[in-house]
Amino acid sequence: MSASDDTTGKITQAQAEDAVRVLLEWAGEDPRREGLLDTPKRVAKAYRDWFSGYQIDPREYLARTFEEVAGYDEMIVLRDIEFESHCEHHMAPIIGKAHVGYLPNGKVVGISKLARVVDVYARRFQVQEKMTAQIAQCIQDVLQPRGVAVVVDGAHECMTTRGVHKRGVSMVTSKMLGEFREDARTRAEFLRFIESGTGRR
Q1: Is 90 labelled as part of a ligand binding site?
Q2: Which residues are listed for Zn(2+) binding in this entry (predicted)?
Q3: In this structure, what are the phi and psi dihedrals at residue 51, rounded to the nearest 5 degrees?
Q4: What does the pLDDT look like over 78-104, one tens digit per residue?
């Protein structure tokens, strides 16, 4: 039995598709129209992809670490991690980039794993402030580094396509833990690292 057919306490694929039909009709459309016949199925499939983060524990990505790093203990920064998320207030997209840094404490993790942690939290209904804190706290809890820094820069479609209709606006949030919070020089170094990547190619 596939996950979409599992009815034990979960919404089924058929129920999700019916909900899409209701919204189409509420918006003034006819869900039986030829161009919309497969739309409920497509929307349900898209939602399964967009919100796949609920099915994954991001801590698992950080479980495998490497200790043979010749004593390296300087800052590690991964810049410009592109993400797509959705605002939990309007279910509208949040598109942006995250920058993640940490100060290793005897072990490091593969850099792709940092990007995957960002992706897991992004693929949930989110508030950007919460997502920023979740990414930082996850890395801190699992790797136990001397510090973690996360900066997220996101454009919120709930603001650009509805409401005030302000385009070209993005929101920046940050979360600093450990030495990044306690030491202004360490924090400034991280910010210089991510700023040096702006607009490069």
Answers
A1: yes
A2: 87, 90, 158
A3: -115, 30
A4: 999 999 999 999 999 999 999 999 999
pLDDT tens digits for range 165-188: 888 889 999 999 999 999 999 999
Those residues with Cβ within 8 angstroms of residue 175's Cβ, 6 or more apart along the chain or in another chain:
132, 133, 135, 136, 137, 148, 149, 150
Q: What is the mean pLDDT of the chain?
A: 91
Within 10 A of 165 (CB to CB), how many other CB atoms are there?
Answer: 8
Buried b (16+ CB within 10 A) or exposed e, 122-135: bbbbbebeebbbbb
**CA-atom Rg of the chain in angstroms:** 20
Residue 138 among known ligand-binding residues: no
With beta carbons less than 8 A apart as the criterion, state whether 134 and 100 touch. Answer: no
Q: What global pTM score does this model have?
A: 0.88
Residues with active-site annotation: 87-90, 128, 156, 158
Tokens 């509208």, residue located: 92
Q: Which two tokens mark 81?
A: 């991690």
